[in-house]
Amino acid sequence: MCGIAGFIGNGDVALLGEMTDALRHRGPDARGLWWDAERRIGLGHRRLSIVDLESGDQPMWSADGELAVVFNGEIYDSMALRAQLEERGHRFVSHHSDTEVLLHGYREWGDDFVERLNGMWAFALFDKRRGRLLLSRDRFGKKPLYYSMQRGTFAFGSELKALLRHPDVEAVISRPALRKYFAYGYIPAPHSLYAGVHKLPAGCNLSLELAGGEPKISRYWEFTLEPFDHTPPRAEEQWGEQLVELLDAAVSRRLISDVPLGVFLSGGIDSSAVAGLAARHLPPGELRTFAVGFREASFDESIHAERAAAHVGSRHRCATLSPDAALEVLPEILAGLDEPMGDSSLLPTWLLCREARREVRVALGGDGADELFAGYDPFRALRLAETYDRVLPRRVHQAIRLLAARLPTSHRNISFDFKVKRALAGLSYPSRMWNPVWMGPLEPGQIEELFAEPVDPEELYSEAIECWERCAGESPVDRTLQFFTRLYLENGILAKVDRASMLHGLEVRSPFLDIELVDFVRRIPHRYKLRGGETKYLLKRALEPLLPREILYRKKKGFGVPVGRWFKDGQLGWDTGPAAAGFHAGFRERLLAEHRSGRADHRLYLWSQWLLDHMPIDHA
């Protein structure tokens, strides 16, 4: 795992070095720079050495000096691709570098070679002969990639902080992006915090001719649900066996490393499955697992993690934290962010990565399973939501919300009143907006008040609406699967894990997002994922030979922290930063007062606002 940066246009090698060094935390082991003053192009790289420690430095060049690449990621099928390329006459210099496979793959198959990759990546490849730069981002967006075309300069980098070192990239905060931040809790691609700076969407390539012209973006892959045409007689058994086989192969591929490796283990289904399968491929007692716990019982999962660790036979490490200890590290976390993330689980994720990095450089996690197998609470609410929306007139919805608002407010993790109030908020809108309203910090009317300007809900939720309406299936379960897998996973979950891990120089791998596994799971009909209110139905049944029932069927808790109580008790202070300019101060103060008095639970908004206010944001 690494950091990449570069530009075409104004600048020199010293500037390239500054951009690259802004990513030192992503790659503390080595720095590589290449600058061509005649063509005015530079490529920079910070390396976290994981595979082929001796011969994997970058930028990496082809033997004839015609192709160069800077790469952030891991290609898990690189050895198989290397064998295919060698059969076609390609000669490799490195021992087993996956980076070199990119150079030969591009030469053999052109831009389409990315469709053959099984892994996670963000790379920039320079074709000197054609005078062309190619950028690519993996199918799910596990690795970040920002770019900007301003003042005649094209710049790119793994993080915003690298781009903002270039004087041609202006740091003007985008109000449309901020509106979407308060609508979703994250800023969805292609938007970024700054106007004129964009995220390359997952599953996309970008090409740019050095001779001039605008960047051209092409999509090479998109997650789609395409259920099997035929359901076999023993579908549950047959598909369950195939599912475990594919997951086992995905875990095995991600155990390849030249440095120490471990597994995140919360004690839930997903991480326990990864740990259990990893233990099969390692000598007894070699597997290391990591968890964090909290003193507040409703947020603590450490006992479940310990039971899972005992079951798989791992060497387990768990750090139990008090609220004060967790709050103490917030300034350090904020200093490392360059774009706000409204998911408060960023804090325990950062702490988990810190603990793991003390022993390993690579960790496997369970990300992606909730999205692929309908594991979130909103899936359980869909059937009731359909009935509610169909039977009750729209004019009655507001009255029911007012009644629900009288429920006593609890700041426990995923409390009953929290779920009821969030569900009713979403049901006040058309079905295509249910998911973002259920998950987001603020509703459209509240965003209008915060920004003191009109808001168009169709534009505000345009990404979510597109996921809903472009779904081939008519079922709200399928539409919700696409929302979580296309939008929430890329911009929320994976962005959070990338930042939390790379701030510690830790590589995190996601077996559930293996493309061979995903291509199988996306064809399983949703009735095998959500059945009678049971989420992840097929996954749980398939894993019964591997994991005990108390792990498979215990109530999902999630990875949260008690931010609601922190705001109520005044443990989180309230002041404003540069990004808050133009917000309606009265709205902010009113919601904080309602929260502290117990009249309402505004934890999602308050955390999102607090994070934005306290980030060290560059602002022109």
Describe this entry's structure for a reader.
The model has no long low-confidence stretch (mean pLDDT 90). The protein starts with a strand and ends in a 6-residue tail after the last helix. The chain is 41% helix and 16% strand. Strands 2-3-1-9-8-10 form a 6-stranded antiparallel sheet. Strands 4-5-6-7-11-12 form a 6-stranded antiparallel sheet, covered by helices on one side. The chain has a 5-stranded parallel sheet with strand order 15-14-13-16-17, sandwiched between helices. With 620 residues, it is an alpha+beta fold. Among the domains are: 2-219, 4-Layer Sandwich (Glutamine Phosphoribosylpyrophosphate, subunit 1, domain 1), CATH 3.60.20; 235-373 and 484-552, Rossmann fold (3-Layer(aba) Sandwich), CATH 3.40.50.620.
